[in-house]
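User: structure tokens for this one?
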Amino acid sequence: MSIVSAKKMAHFSNIIFCRLLEIYSVLESVNTVKDTESVHYDSLVTEYERLVQVICDDHVGAAGTYIQQEHIRSPLIKDMIAECNEILEYRLAAERWHLEIDSASKDFLISFGEKLSCRFLAALLEDRV
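Assistant:
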């Protein structure tokens, strides 16, 4: 990987981190809405789901662009989609079980970004060997 590619990857990681912080912020807002039938609640849920989808699309797109070997790329994409689905399910679990949205929640969400990045980099290294 070239220096330019490494810089692009670092920039990509920063963007993902910021999006995960946005997801956390939206999750905090969703958690404060008491009327789950309101338009406001629906718009927050839609934004949460949109942000998760953007992260998923970004990672799947990067895998499609940078991982050349199909036997590495396909399982990676499948795992990435599963991770993103877990982020979606986390909102539902938080709502269902009335989980407190706090710094532990933020760490939990950020860990998804770290897992996605680690899986991508591991696959990239495997692809290049």
